[in-house]
Amino acid sequence: MAKIDPADIKRPLTVGEVAQRSGVAVSALHFYESKGLIRSVRSSGGQRRYGRDVLRRVAVIKVAQRIGISLASISAALASLPDERTPTAEDWARMSRLWRAELDERITQLTRLRDELDGCIGCGCLSMKVCKLRNPLDELSDQGSGPQLL
Q1: Residue 108 counted as domain residue
Q2: Is residue 140 part of a domain?
Q3: For the chain, the helix, strand and coil percentages under 3-state DSSP, each to the nearest 5
Q4: Which long-range contacts (CB under 8 A, 24 or more apart) does 36-39 make?
Q5: Segments forming the whole domain that contains residue 10
């Protein structure tokens, strides 16, 4: 393990260094920045520079994504932090409580879907009289395109 000079701790990181340290592609970091999830400053040469605290924000983003939290929910949670500061352990506990409710709802929906699919043979075209997922007479068209019961 390389020893870090204490003076080096305050040195901003390049996008490549953040990518390497976080395990996130440079393109993903640019995307996160475009969505306001992380932020950088520009060097005199116009290159992105990040404070080391961005590593914790990226870790929070990646963990939240891994458990299925949408970027919109992640963005809202990070935006609620005062001065867009780095999340603390207390912040994580608060965010995870909010996300737990979101996950519980998704688990309920997926469980219901799983249970309704037990009798389905695929698209349901051969069991339209008993399929719970079908849309008789296109009754759900006013709710938008695509599957509405899922």
Answers
A1: no
A2: no
A3: 55, 5, 40
A4: 36/75, 36/79, 37/61, 37/71, 37/74, 37/75, 37/78, 39/84
A5: 6-98
Query: How far is the C-alpha of 85 from the C-alpha of 53, rounded, in Å?
Result: 8
18: CB partners within 8 A, 6+ apart: 24, 29, 50, 54, 55, 58
Q: How far apart are CA 87 and CA 101, in angstroms?
A: 20
Model confidence, pTM: 0.69
pLDDT digit string, tens, across residues 87-121:
888 988 989 888 999 899 989 988 887 877 765 55
Distance, first Cα to last Cα, the chain: 49
